[in-house]
């Protein structure tokens, strides 16, 4: 079982060569992730102010301030989530395009006998399907996994 995990890990490590040119985008996405996680934790503080100072003291000013704080934090979380998703999705698109280009360049460099034994339709179908799957994993699933981790 561990050899299978090592094989899967080695396949994922090969993807790092394609992700490396976009390290600043990945770093920005991680920053957006940490920022939104921190802001999410501060919503509890806003609720505490809302209850302790707004409702308990029956102060309209404090109630308004607490609601504005919660709405402001929520907007910041939404903006951070947008940037995280945008950055991870754009990295997924670019990595997918780079992989397609690398695989296409490899396929056209193959000996003509390869194309005599394998159907060109099958080759193109595998190329398209596999890179689309990688694009989905890197672009969407990775973003959701980062958020859930």
UniProtKB/TrEMBL annotation:
Any single Pfam family the record assigns to this protein: ABC_membrane
One function term, GO molecular function aspect: ABC-type oligopeptide transporter activity
Transmembrane portions of the chain: 66-87
Main location (coarse class): membrane
InterPro entries: ABC1_TM_dom, ABC1_TM_sf, Type_1_exporter
UniProt membrane topology term: Multi-pass membrane protein
Domain ABC transmembrane type-1, chain residue ranges per copy: 27-149
Cell compartments where the protein resides: Cell membrane
GO cellular component annotations of the record: plasma membrane
Alphabetical UniProt keywords: Membrane, Transmembrane, Transmembrane helix
The keyword DNA repair is annotated on this UniProt entry: no
Name of the molecule in the record: ABC-type multidrug transport system
Organism per entry: Vibrio ishigakensis
């Amino acid at each position: 079982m561990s050899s299978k995990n090592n094989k899967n890990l080695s396949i994922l490590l090969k993807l790092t060569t394609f992700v490396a040119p976009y390290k600043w985008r990945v770093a920005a996405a991680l920053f957006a992730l940490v920022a939104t996680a921190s802001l999410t934790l501060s919503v509890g503080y806003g609720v505490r102010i809302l209850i302790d100072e707004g409702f308990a003291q029956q102060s309209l000013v404090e109630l308004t301030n607490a609601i504005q704080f919660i709405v402001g934090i929520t907007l910041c979380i939404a903006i951070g989530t947008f940037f995280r998703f945008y950055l991870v999705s754009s990295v997924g698109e670019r990595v997918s395009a780079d992989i397609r280009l690398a695989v296409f360049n490899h396929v056209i460099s193959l000996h003509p006998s390869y194309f005599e034994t394998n159907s060109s339709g099958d080759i193109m179908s595998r190329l398209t399907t596999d890179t689309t799957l990688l694009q989905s994993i890197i672009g969407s699933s990775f973003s959701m996994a980062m958020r859930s981790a």
